[in-house]
Amino acid sequence: MAALPPFSTSYRQQQSIGTPSSVFRQNQNQPRPASALDLPGLQSASRVLHDQFMKDAQIIPDIGDMLTTPGGQSSALYSVFPDDYRAPFQKRRLVGIPEALFQYYNTTNVTSHMGLIPEIERVWISIDHKLFLWDYIEGQDISSFVDQPDVITHVAVVKPRAGVFVDEITSVMVICTPVSVLLIGLSMSTVLGTNNRSRKEIKMYATDMTVSTDIEMTSVVGMSDGRIFMCGSQDGCLYELHYQQSESWFSKRVHIVNHSVGSVQSLFPRFTSPKSEDRIVAVISDPKRNCFYTLSARNSISIYQASSEKAVHHVQTMSNLYKSAQEKAPGSPALTPSTFQIVALHIMDPGESRTGVQLIAITMNGVRLYFSSSTSAYSFSYAPTPSAAGGVRPLQLIHVRLPPPNLLHPDEQSSPHRSGYNSSTRNSPPQPPSRPFIVSGLENSCYLDGLMVSAQPGDTDGTDFLLCTAPDLTRIGSLGQLNPPSQQQPSQQSMYGPTSYGTGANQRPPLTEYATLLAIPGRTWSMATVPRESTPPSIAPSPPVTNELATQFSEPSRQFMILTNVGLTFLIKRRALDYLKAVIEEVQTEGVVQPIIEFRDSFGRDQTCAMLLGLASGNTFLDAGEPSTSGTLCTISPDIANVAKQAFYDFGERPIWTERVTYGTSDSSGSAIFSGRREGFAMYFARLVRPLWKDKLTKPGPPGLQQSNFEDHLLVTVQKNLFALKEFLDKNPHLFHSAPGEHSVSRTSSGNEQEAWKAEQNSVSQLQALLSRTIEAISFILLLNDYRLGELIAQCDPDTQKLITSMTFEDLITSQNGVTAARALVNVVIDQQIGQQISVDTISEVLQQRCGSFCSTDDVMLYKARESVRKAMESRNPSERHNWLGESLRLFTKGARMLDFDKIREVCGEYQQLGYGKGAVELPLSCAQALDPDNLGLEYWYAACPPNDTRKEYCDKRLKCYDLVLHSLSVFEEQASQSASAQGSNAIDDPEAIRSHAYDLAFSSEDEMFHSTLYDWLINRGLADELLAMRPPFLEAHLKREPITVPKYQLLWQFYVKDGQPLRAAEILAVLAESDTDLLLDKRLEYLTLAVGNAKSHPVTIGGRHETAISFLTNLEEKLDVAQVQLEVYNALLPHMNDPGEAGEKIKYLSKTLLTMSELYQVYAEPFDLPVMKLLILHVSDHHDEHVVRPIWDRIFDDAIEKGADAQTNADHIIASVVPLGKRFYPSESAFPLKYIASLLVKFALKNRTQLPNGWTPRVLVQCGVPYADVWDVLHEMYESQIPPFNTQSGVQVVSADIAILLNDWLEEAKRPQSSVPRGEFPVGRIDLAVGQYLAELGVNQAETKAIYEGIKRQLRRNW
What we know:
Strand content: 15-25%
Domain Nucleoporin Nup133/Nup155-like C-terminal: 675-1341
Distance between the termini: 147 Å
Structural class: alpha+beta
Subcellular location: Nucleus
InterPro entries: Nucleoporin_Nup133/Nup155_C (IPR007187), Nucleoporin_Nup133/Nup155_N (IPR014908), Nucleoporin_Nup155 (IPR004870), Nucleoporin_Nup155_C_1 (IPR042533), Nucleoporin_Nup155_C_2 (IPR042537), Nucleoporin_Nup155_C_3 (IPR042538), WD40_repeat_dom_sf (IPR036322)
Largest sheet: 5 strands, mixed
Number of strands: 34
Domain Nucleoporin Nup133/Nup155-like N-terminal: 95-568
Mean pLDDT: 84
Radius of gyration: 58 Å
GO molecular function: structural constituent of nuclear pore
Number of helices: 47
C-alpha cells in the first residue's frame, strides 16, 4: 500500500472542529432520559465487542501449537534488527547498591552473598553473619538481621504452614548458613512511600525455629501448603525442612528430612551421599501443579510430588537429554557435549499453554528445551495426591529451540542503524552483522510469559551481556497484514542446519522471536521478574499471555530485575505500542514516514489503528515506566498526538460495500467491510473493557450479603481510559467521515459507497453510545459501592436480588433487566436517604451528573415527589403541608409514565392517609393516561372490548388506576361517616369536605372511560337516583353504551325525563318494552304505557319533530293495545300454563315477549278456541269480516243455550254472555255486529215467545249499551223486511210488540230528570208517525200492544 501523506489539507482544516474540553464536560453532565436508551443499538455494539474478544483470543497462537508444528521439532527463527526502535527490551534504570552498605566491607576478608526476593520487594545482601534487606523501591532503605553468628550463604522467602504462626505472619524467611537453617517470620503491609508510590513495609518476628546441619543448604523453595524443600551444597541430596507448632513424642519442632536416601539418613547425614557427578544442584517449585523439579549436575531433571507428611513421590527422572536434543535437531552446531550444560529450569504457567508445555530448560549456550506432559503411547498418568492441577504427569522433550546465530554485538546495537528505512522492507534480510555474537556462557536466566532474559559475562571486565528474546507477534500472529511475511526469515541461518516446516496454506506458524543482546554494568548475581498486579481472570474469551497487543493498554509492561554487584538494573519489555511511539516520534522530528508504514505493514491496518487511537487519546498504561504512574492518565505531546491522529485517519482507509447475489434470483443483499478506523475503535474499546464485560456484577461477600465483583481501582482505571477515548472522539467527530473530495470519481459505485459509509457511521454511533453508557455504568457501580452495594441488594425484593446476582456487567449496560435492576437499586438508595431525613437533591444531582442514563430527570422528579410527601407527613402547618402535597402531586403527575402500579397504589395510600383528595383522585387518573399514552386501551373500550385483542392490556392498566380512584372515594366516604372519631387524624380539612371535594374532582375529569367506571360503581352502590339528579356530562353516553342492559335503559329513560326530553324517554321505554330480555309481560305493558304517556307529553314546538312524534305515538298506542290484548289472552290461558306438552310452553312464551295481533289470533285465540279473545282481537284490530265474526257469535249463543233447560234459564245465560260483550265492544261492527246479534236474539225470542216477555230483545240490546234509536232502527228494519221469519204475521207482530216496549221505555227515559236522553234529541214527530203506522197494521188480538202505542201517543201530546 502506498504511503499516504502525513498531513492533508482537509485534515488540518478539520483539526479545529473538535469541541473544547470544558464544553464537553458540561455536555456530558446533561442528563438523558431513560427512554432515550436504544437497547437494541447497545446490544448490537456489545456483539461487536464480543467479536473482538474472540479475535484477540485467536490471532496469536498458543505457544504449544507453535512448538508442535508438523516437522518442527526444533527451530531457530529470530528477528534481529539493527535499529533500536524494534529492540524487544530496554534498560529502564539502574538503582545503585546503597552507600551505607559499603561501610561493612571494612576488611578484605569478608564473605558476601546476595539475591532477589521480589515477593517482599527486597534484595538480600549478606556480609559474613549479617543479613541486610534492601528496599529497592525506596532506593536507600535497609533493614538488618544480625542475631546469629554464622556466615549467611542463602536466603529465601516461602509461604508459612497453616496454623503454625500467628495470623500476622504471612511469609517465612529461610536463612541458610554452612551449619544451620533458621526461620524468621515476616509480616507485610502496603504503605505509601515517596512520590506517592506504594511500597511494602516488613516486620521480622523471631520464631525460635532453627536446626543444625552438617551440610550447607541452598536452592530453598516453598510449596503452596508451606512445605520447604532444598538441596545440599556438598552432597547434592534433596532435603525437606519440616517444622510444626510444638514438639511431639516422635518429632522435634523443626528438623531436616533427607528424601534422597530416606528419612533414617537424616540422623546420619555423613555416612552416604549420591554420586558427586549426579548430585542435585537446583530445586524449582511449581506450586500451581503441586510439584517441584530438581536439576542435577549431569543434566538430569527429576519431578517430585509432595505427597503425605514428610514424604515425596518421585514421578520421573529424565536423563540423556543431550541425546534427545540431538534427535530433535540433528547436526546442529549449537549442540555439543562441552556446551550442553543446563543452567536453569523455568516453569511455564498452566495458563500459558493449552497443550501442556510446562517446563523449559536452558543451557549455557542458549539452547532451550521445552518439555510437555507425555502424550506418547507409553505414557501414563497417576495422582498419588490429588491437586488443583490433577495428577502430575510425566514429561517428555517436545522441542529444541536453538540460540540466535546472528546476534548483533551490543556495541553495534547502540548506534541506531536506520539505513534500512528507505532501502529495505521487513521481508528482506538486513546486512550481515560485522561481528555476530555467539552466546557461550550463560549463568543466570529468568522467564515470564514467553519472555526470556539470560545473563553471561561480557567481553570486557565489569560488564555482563543479557540475551533477551520475545515472541515476534508480526510473524506468528494473524494480524490481517496485506503482505504476510514469508516463512524464510532473514535471521534463519544455515549454520544450524536445515529445519523443515510445513507449507500448507493453513499451517500454524513456527515460533519466531525477536532477539537482542544488551550490556549491563557489573557481574550478575540474580535475576527475577518484577511482580505485577495480576488482572483478575475474566469470563470473556481471554487472549494468550503472549498476545500483548490485547493487554498493552490494560496492564503495565512486564519488567525484569537483574541484580549485579553494581546495583539493580530494571529491564522493561517494549510493547508494540512503544515501537509505535518511537516511529511516530521519528515522523514528527525527522519527517521520515517509512518506519510508520513498515509498522503498519507489520502489524496490520486494524491493529495499528487501535494502537494509534490509544496513543492519541491517552491511556493509564501508555508510559512503560515507573509504578508511580500507575492509575494516572498518560498522554503524549500534542505534536505527536496529531501525527497519531493523522495516521489513524489516513491508515484507516474507507469502508467497502460488498454485494451478495443469490444465484437464479434477482435478490441481492450486501454488507459493509468496515474501515480500519471503525475496527480500531472497536478493538481498542473491547480491550479496555474485557476485564469487566462478561463478568458477574457481584459475588458472595460477608455472610448473607453480596459485594462488588470488581476492585474499585480496576473500575477507576478502566473508566479513566474510556473517558479519555470518549473525550478524544467527541473532540474529533470528523474521524469517521470521508474527507471532502475523497469520493470516487466513478458515479456507478457512489450508491454502494454511501451504503458503506452509512453502515459504518451507524456502527460507530452505536459503539459511541455504548462507550458513554459504559462510563456511566462504572460511575454507577462505584456510587453503589459507596452506599454499601451488598446492603442495598439485600433491601431489594427477592426477584430483583436474583436478577442482580445473576447479572453481568454487560447486562447492566445493554439489557432491559439492567435498566430494571438499576432503577430498583437507585430507589433503595433514595429510600435510604429519605429514611435518614436527608434531602434527595444531592444524591440525585450526583446520579445525574455521573450516570445520567441510570437516573433520568423523570427518576429525579419522582424522588423529589416522594421527599415532598415525607415533608408533608412531618409538617404540622396545614398551609405548608398543603404546599408540599401539591408539589408532590405536580412531580408525580409529570413522571407518571415512570411509576409502576405498586408505587402508584402506595402513594395513593399516603394521600388517603393525609386526607389529600386532590392527589388521591388526580394522580391515578394521570397515571391511567400515562400508562396508555396512545389511547389504545381507550380505543379498545370504545370498540366494546372485542375478544383476543392486544389492546386489552392497556385497557386493564387503565381500569386498575380507576380502581384506585374508587378506593380513595370509598375511603373518604368511610372517613366522613366516622368523622366524629376522625377529628384527631392527620387530615387537612374536615372529612365531609374532603369527601365532597374528591367527588367533585372525580366528576370533573374529562376521561369518559373513567366516568363510565365511576357511574357503574355508584349504581352498584344504590346511588342511581343521586346520579340522575346530578346529570353528569357522560352519563347519557354511558347509559347508551354497548352492551345494552335493562338497568342502564331504566336509568336512561329517567335521565331523559329529568332532562326534559320526554320523546327520547318514550323511545327508550319502547325499546325496553320490546327488548329481547327476560322482562315479564306486565312490565313490558308498563313500559309501553309510560312510553305513551311520555310521547303525549312531547311539546309540539320542540325541534320540528311534531309529525314524527305523532306517528311514533300512534305506533306506540297500537302496540299498547296489542299488548293489552296479549295480557288478556295470557290471563285467559293462565289456568292452563302448566299443561303438558306444547300448549303449556306456548302459554309461558306468551308472558315473555310481545306478539302481533296475527300471532295472538292464529297461535293462541284460534287453537285454544277463545271466542271472546277472538272478538277482542277483531275489535282492537278493527278487522271487518262477517264470515269471521258471525261464526264466533253463533258459537257464543250455542255455548249460552243449555240443552234441556227452560227458556228463561237460557235467556239469562244469553244475557250473561252478550251484555258484557256488548258493553265492551259496541259500537264496533268488527266485534259486535248489531244487526246480526239482534237477529239472533229475536230468533231466540220467537222460538220461546210463549215463555219470554215482550220487549226482551230490545231490553237486552239497551243493556248492552246500544242507544234506543239504534235498537229501534234495527227492529224497524226487521219489521219492514219481509225476510223470514218476518214474512209471517206472527213474526211481524212479535217485532211490533218489542218496538212498542222499546218506544215506551225510551219515552219514560226521556221524561226522567237527569236522563241520558236529552229531551231535545227525542224524535217526537218521527215516533208519532211510526206509532200511527204500527197501530194501523197491528193484529186484531194484540190489545196489550195497542194499549202501549196509544199510551205513547197520549204522552207525546201531553209532554211535547
